[in-house]
């Protein structure tokens, strides 16, 4: 097993800690302003950005940071809240689409300003232009290597 040196571990810890802290602050802001939580937002934004405002559950799972079972629970809750509806597919009786409703679109759009402020205040404003560019290049490179 190859060991990681202190610098390598420090880079990893900095990424994990910064991500957790930024998300925690944004979640608090959303809660304080009585907006939908980030897990809900992530599902709604994925649907909003998709053609016809719907995705197969398997495709939706690729767009959000949830396990399959976690996604199923979130979609069931969103369906009860009126933000999403599920439709069976014509070609595959076992498959289903998650479809964004008008109420889901309203909730997503109402949440965006608070989320955008959090991104700006807790992440972007702390970094200069060169740091933002380096982070974007590095994280994009990691993502491309894994998809």
TrEMBL record:
<dbReference type="Pfam" id="PF01047">
    <property type="entry name" value="MarR"/>
</dbReference>
<dbReference type="GO" id="GO:0003700">
    <property type="term" value="F:DNA-binding transcription factor activity"/>
</dbReference>
<dbReference type="InterPro" id="IPR036390">
    <property type="entry name" value="WH_DNA-bd_sf"/>
</dbReference>
<dbReference type="GO" id="GO:0003677">
    <property type="term" value="F:DNA binding"/>
</dbReference>
<feature type="domain" description="HTH marR-type">
    <location>
        <begin position="1"/>
        <end position="144"/>
    </location>
</feature>
<protein>
    <submittedName>
        <fullName>MarR family transcriptional regulator</fullName>
    </submittedName>
</protein>
<dbReference type="InterPro" id="IPR000835">
    <property type="entry name" value="HTH_MarR-typ"/>
</dbReference>
<keyword id="KW-0238">DNA-binding</keyword>
<dbReference type="InterPro" id="IPR036388">
    <property type="entry name" value="WH-like_DNA-bd_sf"/>
</dbReference>
<dbReference type="GO" id="GO:0006950">
    <property type="term" value="P:response to stress"/>
</dbReference>
<dbReference type="InterPro" id="IPR039422">
    <property type="entry name" value="MarR/SlyA-like"/>
</dbReference>
């Amino acid at each position: 097993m190859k060991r990681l040196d202190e610098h390598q571990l420090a880079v990893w810890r900095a990424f994990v800690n910064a991500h957790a802290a930024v998300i925690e602050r944004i979640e608090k802001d959303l809660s304080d302003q009585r907006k939908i939580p980030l897990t809900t937002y992530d599902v709604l934004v994925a649907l909003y950005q998709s053609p016809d405002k719907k995705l197969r559950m398997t495709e939706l799972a690729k767009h959000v940071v949830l396990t399959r079972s976690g996604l199923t629970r979130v979609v069931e809750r969103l369906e009860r809240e009126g933000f999403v509806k599920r439709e069976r597919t014509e070609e595959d009786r076992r498959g289903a689409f998650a479809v964004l409703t008008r109420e889901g679109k309203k909730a997503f759009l109402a949440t965006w300003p608070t989320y955008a402020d959090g991104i700006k205040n807790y992440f972007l404003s702390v970094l200069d232009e060169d740091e933002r560019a380096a982070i974007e290049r590095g994280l994009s490179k990691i993502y491309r290597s894994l998809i």
